[in-house]
Design brief:
Blueprint (H helix, E strand, L loop, with lengths): L1 H49 L5 H22 L6 H22 L5
Helix pairs in contact: 1-2, 1-3, 2-3
């Protein structure tokens, strides 16, 4: 009886550990995707500024926004799990930054 209880406890511990590991990996993987997207946006902003597509003032606004996105990702990544709400917040910030970059790049074109 005691042996079967120990085996059951061991199995439960394995299941709990597997679930924790799965959640941790999923949270880290999605965070890495956001970091890569954010870095790509930063590169696009730098290239647009070098090519003269955005002004200095627009460049600093866009880069400040990127800093806020990085802070948000870091803040949500600290506990190892990014919840669906946190994902929506990050995706919203990234989408707004992308829209703003497109608008700034084309604001003088008719």
């Amino acid at each position: 009886m005691v042996d079967s209880c120990n085996q059951l406890q061991l199995q439960m511990k394995k299941i709990a550990f597997s679930a924790f590991l799965f959640l941790f990996v999923c949270g880290t993987a999605s965070a890495q995707g956001y970091v890569a997207t954010q870095r790509a946006q930063e590169d696009m902003i730098r290239k647009a500024y070098k090519r003269g597509r955005v002004t200095r003032n627009e460049y600093y606004k866009l880069m400040n926004e990127q800093d806020k996105i990085k802070e948000t990702i870091y803040k949500y990544k600290r506990d190892g799990v990014i919840t669906p709400h946190e994902q929506n917040v990050i995706e919203g910030k990234i989408a707004r930054a992308e829209d703003r970059l497109a608008r700034y790049k084309h604001n003088w074109e008719r």
